[in-house]
């Protein structure tokens, strides 16, 4: 029975019951005219399931559904039932059964008289219950009422967090914008939390934040917290003398929070925005940086750990000392004096690191007459770094370990970086690349690799046929990197395709293998509409992006890619996909595919459309919330 005929039969039944009641009340079995003398002309008339009887000019006529015409006192299928029916671009109207019906394309279904896309949805709404407890309490600073607003941040071990504003009277801040401090409690998720004080403005303490306590919020709870501040002062000496101005000291508190103090011309500690210094009680690590102080008298170390301190009312005066020695030296490349442009990275045992440039004579470019610079004593790892001006003669590598030294007094160090030269050509599937591409060289041993371009003649390193590449001898994994796509260029980036052992000067002929990627992409088994970016990642962290076409194919004639085994991810791209038509998931694994030879992949993205509501306690939230 059609949905529209249900109301018709109910109305007819009500009409018959009314007539029967009237007849029964008259005490006669006559079924003719009613007490008023009028007669229902549709009584006993059945127009069939596709129409209903109506009275027109005291006669019964059948009013028929679309596609049907009256035939006496019944409705029969008529010609042209599809004339006024538009099923849309994904279906056609069919009248084979005497009625209008939409026959829809694959992936679409008939809804009324149109074709709509099939999509799996959650058939029953979900209700998510967000548990909550009431949190209240007071905050004091150094045992006294705070002089200004405070902020507390509660952080749970799983990364959940929330913040509570505290009034100058130390009361919780509510959510009423007209009277924000009227609330005695706030509603928060239950759990175990670390409670951090966060600085508002300059004071009372100069840290940006600091751990105060840990609390368990299983039920409605009141907490009383104190921010334990200590007024401090102090000084810094360098090499046994007052540090002078502009040295930076970074104080890092155990449990979080840090502040930077600077020195004045007498080496006394100060702060850029406060006359009085204050810290929270606790344990601190203190780190030295030269800042803008004189580079010929102050060690060049940056962010070097120089002390650990306990700050309390009993230990509020800080006296710090930075030791100093001097270091000179030079750098050569394969036994020849460096021509400048390169640099050396010094990494110390105090968690510090700094660079020293090399001048055109191969010496440390630090400006001192004796070719030395101030440095803290200790153990250092010295590594080579390429500079832009040295690429023609110096290895292009970065962070190549050269030597470890231990400084206990003034010293000089002579360093040499070995050099080999690489030349050759690159082809893609046997042909010179139609566009410029790049190669990445990753050293198997320590250090950071480098990149080089390949021109359209396939020559490594330059547009010149005589180009060669200086590098540190060793074993390298070579990866292909597409600078642009098209004209047979695989879109792979950082895709390792060979390994080279380079112990001395060497010429190579490299070829990037290619297979053709074909296949299709669907959403819930049906053709996809809109942008659905796919990311293919290989086992060596190489990757490529593929954008399926509107017809669902990955490419009409195939995508040239490097052979390998890939993990395929759907990745929503911010600003390019709509959460109303494409899933906003950032990274979703779709499949593991083997493309070591020619092959086709069939990929499907399963999609659900969640519906539901969120409650907190027994009520809906009164402010907007986000679910992750």
Protein model, in words:
By secondary structure, the protein is mainly β. Helix content is 4%, strand content 46%. The strands form 15 sheets. A 5-stranded antiparallel sheet has the order 21-20-19-23-24, with no helix packed on it. The chain has a 4-stranded antiparallel sheet with strand order 12-11-14-15, with no helix packed on it. The model is unreliable at 1-37, 120-124 and 575-580 (pLDDT under 50).
Return residue spans where pLDDT drops below 50 for at least 5 consecutive residues.
1-37, 120-124, 575-580
Portion of residues in beta strands equals: over 45%
What's the end-to-end separation, in Å?
A: 45 Å
Structural class: mainly beta
Residue-averaged pLDDT, rounded? Answer: 81
Question: Helix content range of the residues, please?
Answer: under 10%
Main sheet? 5 strands, antiparallel
User: Which value, in Å, is the CA radius of gyration?
Assistant: 40 Å
Explain the layout of strands and helices.
Layout: H1 3-26, E1 51-56, E2 59-64, E3 68-70, E4 75-77, E5 91-94, E6 101-104, E7 108-111, E8 114-117, E9 126-130, E10 133-141, E11 150-155, E12 161-166, E13 185-188, E14 191-198, E15 209-217, E16 221-227, E17 229-238, E18 241-242, E19 248-253, E20 258-263, E21 269-270, E22 277-280, E23 282-289, E24 304-311, E25 317-322, E26 325-333, E27 336-337, E28 343-348, E29 353-357, E30 372-375, E31 378-385, E32 398-407, E33 411-417, E34 420-428, E35 437-443, E36 450-454, E37 469-471, E38 474-481, E39 493-502, E40 506-512, E41 515-523, E42 526-527, E43 534-538, E44 543-546, E45 559-561, E46 564-570, E47 588-595, E48 599-605, E49 612-616
Parallel strand pairs: 9-49, 10-16, 17-25, 26-33, 34-40, 41-48
Antiparallel strand pairs: 1-2, 3-4, 5-6, 7-8, 10-13, 11-12, 11-14, 14-15, 17-18, 17-22, 19-20, 19-23, 20-21, 23-24, 26-27, 26-30, 28-29, 28-31, 31-32, 34-37, 35-36, 35-38, 38-39, 41-42, 41-45, 43-44, 43-46, 46-47
């Amino acid at each position: 029975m059609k949905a529209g005929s249900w109301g018709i039969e109910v109305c007819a039944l009500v009409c018959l019951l009314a007539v029967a009641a009237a007849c029964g009340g008259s005490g006669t079995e006559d079924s003719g005219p009613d007490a008023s003398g009028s007669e229902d002309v549709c009584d006993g008339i059945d127009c069939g399931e596709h129409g209903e009887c109506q009275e027109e000019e005291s006669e019964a006529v059948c009013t028929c559904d679309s596609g049907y015409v009256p035939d006496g006192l019944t409705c029969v299928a008529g010609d042209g039932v599809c004339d006024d029916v538009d099923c849309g671009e994904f279906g056609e109207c069919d009248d084979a059964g005497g009625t209008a019906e939409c026959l829809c394309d694959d992936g679409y279904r008939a809804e009324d008289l149109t074709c709509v896309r099939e999509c799996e949805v959650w058939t029953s709404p979900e209700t998510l219950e967000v548990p909550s407890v009431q949190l209240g309490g007071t905050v004091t600073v150094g045992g006294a009422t705070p002089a200004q607003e405070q902020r507390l941040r509660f952080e749970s071990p799983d990364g959940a967090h929330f913040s509570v504003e505290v009034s100058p009277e130390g009361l919780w801040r509510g959510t009423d914008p007209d009277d924000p401090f009227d609330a005695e409690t706030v509603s928060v998720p239950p759990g175990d939390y670390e409670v951090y004080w966060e600085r508002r403005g300059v004071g009372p303490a100069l840290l940006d934040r600091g751990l105060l306590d840990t609390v368990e919020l299983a039920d409605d709870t009141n907490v009383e917290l104190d921010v334990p501040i200590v007024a401090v002062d102090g000084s810094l000496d360098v090499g046994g003398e007052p540090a002078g101005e502009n040295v930076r000291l970074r104080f890092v508190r155990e449990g979080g929070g840090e502040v930077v103090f600077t020195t004045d011309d007498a080496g006394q500690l100060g702060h850029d925005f406060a006359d009085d210094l204050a810290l929270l009680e606790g344990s601190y690590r203190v780190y030295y940086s030269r800042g803008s102080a004189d580079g010929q008298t102050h060690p060049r170390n940056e962010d070097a750990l120089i002390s650990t301190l306990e700050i309390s009312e009993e230990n509020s005066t800080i006296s710090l000392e930075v030791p100093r020695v001097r270091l000179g030296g030079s750098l050569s490349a394969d036994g020849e004096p460096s021509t400048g442009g390169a640099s050396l990275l010094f990494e110390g045992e105090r968690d510090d690191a700094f660079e020293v440039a090399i001048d055109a004579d191969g010496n440390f470019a630090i400006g001192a007459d004796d070719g030395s610079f101030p440095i803290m004593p200790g153990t250092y790892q010295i590594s080579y770094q390429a500079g832009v001006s040295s690429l023609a003669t110096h290895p292009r590598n970065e962070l190549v370990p050269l030597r470890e030294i231990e400084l206990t007094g003034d010293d000089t160090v002579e360093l040499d970086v070995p050099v080999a030269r690489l030349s050759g050509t690159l082809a893609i599937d046997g042909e010179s690349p139609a566009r410029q591409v790049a190669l990445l060289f990753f050293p198997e041993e320590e250090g950071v690799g480098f990149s080089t371009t390949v021109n359209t003649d396939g020559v490594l390193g330059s547009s010149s046929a005589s180009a060669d590449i200086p590098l540190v001898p060793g074993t390298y994994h070579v990866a292909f990197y597409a600078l642009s796509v098209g004209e047979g260029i695989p879109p792979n980036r950082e895709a390792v395709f060979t390994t080279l052992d380079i112990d001395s000067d060497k010429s190579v002929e490299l070829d990037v293998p290619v297979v053709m990627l074909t296949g299709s992409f669907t959403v819930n088994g049906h053709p996809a509409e809109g942008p659905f970016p796919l990311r293919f990642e290989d086992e060596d962290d190489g990757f490529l992006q593929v954008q399926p076409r509107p017809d669902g194919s990955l490419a009409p004639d195939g995508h040239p890619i490097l052979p390998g085994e890939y993990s395929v991810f759907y990745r929503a791209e911010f600003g390019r996909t709509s959460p109303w038509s494409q899933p906003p998931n950032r990274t979703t694994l779709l499949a593991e595919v083997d493309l070591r030879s020619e092959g086709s992949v069939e990929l499907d993205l399963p999609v659900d459309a969640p519906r539901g509501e969120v409650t907190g306690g027994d009520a809906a939230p009164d402010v907007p919330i986000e679910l992750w």
